[in-house]
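re: that chain from earlier
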Amino acid sequence: MSHEPRARSNSSPSASSAPSAPSALFCGVLTIACWMGLASATLAARGEETQLKVGVVQRFGDELTDELTLQATPGDRLQLKFNSPTQTQNQTQNQTVRPQETQLSASNVKLVVQMQTLVTPVLQERVVLSTHRSFETAEDAAKQWRALGIETEIAQPEQWQVWAKRQVYNTPFLRRMLLSSVQLQGKKTAHLDSRILQQVPIVSWEINGNRYSSDRLEVSTNKNLIQVRQGKEDKYGIPFAGKLQLQPNAYGTYTLVNDVPLETYLRGVVPHEIGRNVSYAAIEAQTIIARTYALRNLRRFAIDGYELSADTHCQVYVGLKDTDPNADRAILATRNKVLTYNNELVDALYSSTTGGVTAVFSDVWNGADKPYLKSLVDSAYSVWNLSRQSLADENNFQRFINMQRGFNEAGTRLFRWRRESSIEQLTQDLQKFLTKNRSPLANFSRIQQIQVTQRSPGGRILKLAVQTDRSNILLEKDEIRSAFSSPRSTLFYLEPLYDQTKGENALQGYAFVGGGLGHGVGLSQTGASGLAKQGWKSDRILNFYYPGTQIREWGVGSRES
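^ sequence. v structure.
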């Protein structure tokens, strides 16, 4: 789901046995086609279904060895449409024809990457205003920059970044004037990402002895099913329903985008998010939340011309690979149902495991809190009273995090954890993080002490102070997990580790003692599974994690906030 490398379900889907021959790649295609046909018939009376644009391969062309193989189902053909010059085997390197729209068909096609030398070098440049772990914090930062009168756009070349809008700051002079202005205001991490391009990657493919290339390629089939294999080692690939388009992104590479109906998209999300061996009510709850999340987050990749990614920065989406009968049943049973608050789609955040207490939005990211995203003890019983025993108190927190029983997630692998890290490893982690973010504080040699200086009432660390041999560094909220590799969440306390052979005060590292995996905001996938086992229905589960919300049909009294 949303965010950072987002918190995932700790119950992984059951592995399917690999097909023994290429023809087995499409076993079950008839079943899929029938299911899709029934879904389409159901929708015919209700209007056209929402189509999503999902980036299923986001950075094609990062490496010259990148390749994609697209294959039609047996008895079907790929229909390829593109606008490009054509070059045959008999033509010399400089002989091409005028660009024109071309339509071809093939049973399969392999896309490869080549570097094309530019006749005239090109300046590629953007002002990076700030860098963030998550889209949520980047979006809040973009609002802050706009309040200063700077037009922005949100990008994700690797980490999430806020850029000065390229169409506005479209000359070297304007970009440098802007950068100078923001740096004078103390924004020291703002910088100019500038490079001279001598070569650019181009995508090409061969059909019937002719080689073609284009920066955009549309691919469809009569049966609306295309198998995608990524790289030489991928023998079986992933079947995607709908259409595919290869298109350029904002980083000089390409994205393969799946144009897919919303309800079909959910077939590739729900079993890979909640898992398979869970009670049906939890699957239903996950389905409603996944549908709500998708509809509310269509803006995330606007800079690249699509809407959602297929990874943990949004929701894990694996096409029609390893679909699940229970998930299919839940999708049909909850068709068009979304979760709302005051008739608006909720910010449907969820994570793998809360560690026994959910977080409010501002515990993790910058931005306005939502009334339905509260800090709640993740239990069906009265095991802890947050109003009387605030987890902002360090002693209370340590007692809470060492409790093992009575919680919805009790007994699961990620509910409680302890991870140790040496000073050397912590130093290396922090230096890497600060260097990546162009912080002037990265120039230190060793961490001397780490201390929690502020917690939220729900126990999440808001501020973590790090003393080094050069300076004091303050880490806040979700950037703590970017800075250090040990903590699985920000719900932890620190236990100093000493080298007794060097004396009582010879600090050699820290143990991170905590609970949960991920941000902990909204529904816990593990907790929802626990409640479903106790007999809770999906609507009750959702009202527990998102109090005050209502389930409605999309388009009937609900709107995107």
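The chain has 13 helices and 27 strands.
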